[in-house]
């Protein structure tokens, strides 16, 4: 048997004149967490919808556990779980009824899906609300129930599209713990996320998608190494002086910084860059209010590769 749980070659999807995916290749090893990152509209959700048989690709090939998503959609659907960006639970049923319904639809025996529903309600902090109709739930509670529903049949491959959006920190940590437990028993998880920390802490491998193409695919630590060992952040007194400082650094040191309001960011492989920058700004009476030096993060890699900060992907 192949060691790949998900295999994608040359995947393309067009919507009229719009190309949402343009020759995507992915290989997701079994029993791992694979992170799919990209700016809004990059194509992450379109890829998930194809892999879960909701959409048909325009061209290319995709397999889940060796089964073609186009030729064998029913088989693929029996092997996967999906929690999409928006809660898909029935608001007219209780939380417990929703989970039990999933158990019946996936043909689990009653002796299995009834205790499984109770277990998941407890794990996601919904036990006290389990017998209330979902229409009375908050948005975060619905999101937790939706993720729980994807876990009812204990699928070997789990797709999580922005799984922790709308969750409070405690619920997010609980879901991270559950994902690690699932991988520990051999489940393969493919997740898209707007939280770079999430991908950094969970994913063994990350693919960055931009404009429908994979522009990077590697282990998070190796992606961070490409950018440099340290990131320098300069907090200027105001946006005007930040803009002037950015121009000076770019012109004199050929190091155009990334600017966000009054904060400038530069990457460096040694400490000399910081000394050069501070000396130059001191000469121009542009002294920073605060200076921070830290290791590069996956967020820095994401910004360097795409030119965008990470955002929720609500479009193709």
UniProtKB/TrEMBL annotation:
Residues 6-236 form the ABC transporter domain. InterPro entries: AAA+_ATPase, ABC_transporter-like_ATP-bd, ABC_transporter-like_CS, ABC_transporter_ATP-binding, DrrA, P-loop_NTPase. It is found in: Cell membrane. It is a peripheral membrane protein. Keywords: Antibiotic resistance, ATP-binding, Cell membrane, Membrane, Nucleotide-binding, Translocase, Transport. Its main location: membrane. SMART domains: AAA (SM00382). Pfam families: ABC_tran (PF00005). The keyword Cytoplasm does not apply. It is an enzyme of class 7 (translocase). Its EC number is 7.6.2.2. SUPFAM superfamilies: P-loop containing nucleoside triphosphate hydrolases. Gene3D superfamilies: P-loop containing nucleotide triphosphate hydrolases. GO terms for molecular function: ABC-type xenobiotic transporter activity; ATP binding; ATP hydrolysis activity. GO terms for cellular component: plasma membrane. The keyword Translocase applies. One of its GO terms (biological process) is response to antibiotic. Belongs to the ABC transporter superfamily. Drug exporter-1 (DrugE1) (TC 3.A.1.105) family. This is ABC-type xenobiotic transporter. It comes from Streptacidiphilus jiangxiensis. The lineage of its organism: Bacteria, Bacillati, Actinomycetota, Actinomycetes, Kitasatosporales.
């Amino acid at each position: 048997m192949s060691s790949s749980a998900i295999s994608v070659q040359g995947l393309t999807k067009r919507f009229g004149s719009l190309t949402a995916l343009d020759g995507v290749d992915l290989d997701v090893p079994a029993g791992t967490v694979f992170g799919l990152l990209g700016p809004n509209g990059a194509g992450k959700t379109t890829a998930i919808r194809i892999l879960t048989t909701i959409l048909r690709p325009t061209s290319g090939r995709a397999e889940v556990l060796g089964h073609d998503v186009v030729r064998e959609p029913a088989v693929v659907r029996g092997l996967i779980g999906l929690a999409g960006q928006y809660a898909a639970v029935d608001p007219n049923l209780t939380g417990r009824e929703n989970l039990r319904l999933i158990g019946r639809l996936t043909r689990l025996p009653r002796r299995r899906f009834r205790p499984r529903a109770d277990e998941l309600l407890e794990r996601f902090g919904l036990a006290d609300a389990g017998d209330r109709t979902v229409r009375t739930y908050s948005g975060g509670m619905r999101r937790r129930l939706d993720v729980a529903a994807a876990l009812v049949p204990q699928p070997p491959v789990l797709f999580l599209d922005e799984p922790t959006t709308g969750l409070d920190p405690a619920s997010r940590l609980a879901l991270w713990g559950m994902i690690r437990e699932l991988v520990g028993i051999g489940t393969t998880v493919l997740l898209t996320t707007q939280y770079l920390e999430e991908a950094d802490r969970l994913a063994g491998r990350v693919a960055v998608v931009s404009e429908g193409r994979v522009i990077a695919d590697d282990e998070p630590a190796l992606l961070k190494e490409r950018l440099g060992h340290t990131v320098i952040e300069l907090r200027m007194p105001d946006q005007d002086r930040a803009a002037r400082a950015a121009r000076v650094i770019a012109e004199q040191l050929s190091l155009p910084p990334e600017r966000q309001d009054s904060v400038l960011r530069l990457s460096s492989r040694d400490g000399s860059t910081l000394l050069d920058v501070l000396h130059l700004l001191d000469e121009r009476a542009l002294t920073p209010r605060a200076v921070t030096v830290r290791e590069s993060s996956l967020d820095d890699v994401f910004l360097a590769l795409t030119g965008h900060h990470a955002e929720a992907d609500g479009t193709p």
